[in-house]
Design a protein that fits this description.
Rossmann fold, globular, about 170 residues, five-stranded parallel sheet, alpha/beta
Length: about 170
């Protein structure tokens, strides 16, 4: 069974993330979505909320693709998380050249730590390349419509969360 790990903070999960998840399912039999517990980023949603949102988003994807999808929070090194879940491949989504520079360095460090785990880059679909969770949150904070960038359930969660913060 080929297992892949798709890591991120997913704060919140966007349609760009969902696109990468769908496409990653074509490459692996089991996809683990690693939700980073990154206190430095100051997430809008708690870890439990992010995990629940991703699980909900992945129900239909798993059914459509026949791929087992698991959501796994982690706060250790990415390479250690990959080992924990038995992943032979780390899947990373790229939106732009700026992403590549950071990811290139990350791959080098991960290969130095464990050369048996490969990294595969999936380019975001052209229509999703500008979508970033940070920008989605900013648009929502300023009253813009984020319906083109997130699912209806995530849009509702964003709207509710930002209304409570006011």
């Amino acid at each position: 069974m080929r297992t892949g790990l798709y890591p991120g903070t997913f704060d919140p999960v966007t349609i760009g993330h969902s696109d990468i998840i769908k496409r990653a399912c074509r490459l692996v039999d089991r996809l683990v979505i690693g939700v980073a517990i990154n206190h430095d980023k100051g997430p809008l949603f708690s870890l439990d909320e992010r995990v629940a949102m991703i699980e909900a988003e992945c129900v239909a994807i798993a059914a459509d693709t026949g791929t087992e999808i698991l959501v796994h929070p982690f706060d250790n090194l990415l390479i250690d998380c990959a080992r924990e879940v038995g992943a032979g491949v780390i899947i990373r989504g790229l939106r732009a050249v700026a992403d590549f520079e950071y990811e290139f360095q990350m791959v080098g460090m991960n290969r130095a730590l464990d050369s048996s785990i490969e990294t595969v880059f999936l380019m975001a679909e052209a229509r999703h390349q500008a979508i970033a969770s940070k920008l989605v949150k900013e648009i929502a904070r300023l009253g813009g419509d984020v319906g083109r960038f997130v699912s209806p359930a995530v849009k509702a969660a964003l709207t509710e969360r930002l209304a409570r913060k006011k």
